[in-house]
Here is the input.
Amino acid sequence: MMVMMGAAGNIGATVASPKDQPWLFKLVPTLERAKRLHTGALDVEALVHAGIKVAILPKADRAQQAQLAMAGIKASVLGFDDFDGLQKCVWRTATLVGTTLARQRAQAYQQALQASLKRPMPPAGAGQRKPRLLHIASLRPLRVDGCGTILAQWTQAAGATTAAQGVCGNRQSVTPEQVLAWAPDIIILAANAGPEEWLAQDPVLSRLAAVRHGHVWRNPAGLFLWDRYGPELLLQLSWARMVVEAETHPIPGEAREAAHEKVAQAMMVETRAFYSRFYGIALSKGEAWRIVHAQPPQP
Here is the structure.
């Protein structure tokens, strides 16, 4: 969120890394100066040594607030599980940054998100049920995302239902047999879930109709993963809706590859507009293509 607020230059330490978020470090090079922190245990001494005065913590690290306060670091806990929480998180971050630009971007983002959530879905056909969508966070080991997550929220907003019945939380371990029983109509692989070929190579997962008939999509990823807890959820909403519409309202005779590329071309336009409006970054067409296809920057 700090990047969207135009405050990337104020980040003195981060758990982000060029390996995990290559687009972030390519397009926001000031982050190269920030001290790298390891995820998990918080090194308060390292933060003090780096001169950190304000820290933003995820919900999972709420217990660290008191320890940071004792070290003279003001800590705020920011996180969300739904779109209402996302809007509050955006505005709280803008308040922490305290600049006119931050407030302007927060207001523009909230307006764009609300407009996107209110956008009507194409009408379903007579007797047509909502498609079952499965989001796979990792193929090896096999982990999926279930209820009570922002992923379930955008799945519903896109006009689908979460296929992972009985599973709640992020990145939950499941068996291939469970996935086979769910019989998802659409499978979305996280950008970092592993090669799509692994689905066809698995003796159980390869039996899924979604795998056999090409109803598998790769989730885009840019500065941040579109599908998870960051500002690019606004792009995820548009992309997921296009995916569901392409699957539920296919054009007769259109090849699967053509349908995928049509969605990609539309999202390239939206992605370039989003990066310009909310990050102040001018993406080239080539960069937008790589982001939409979940590809890292060119070396």
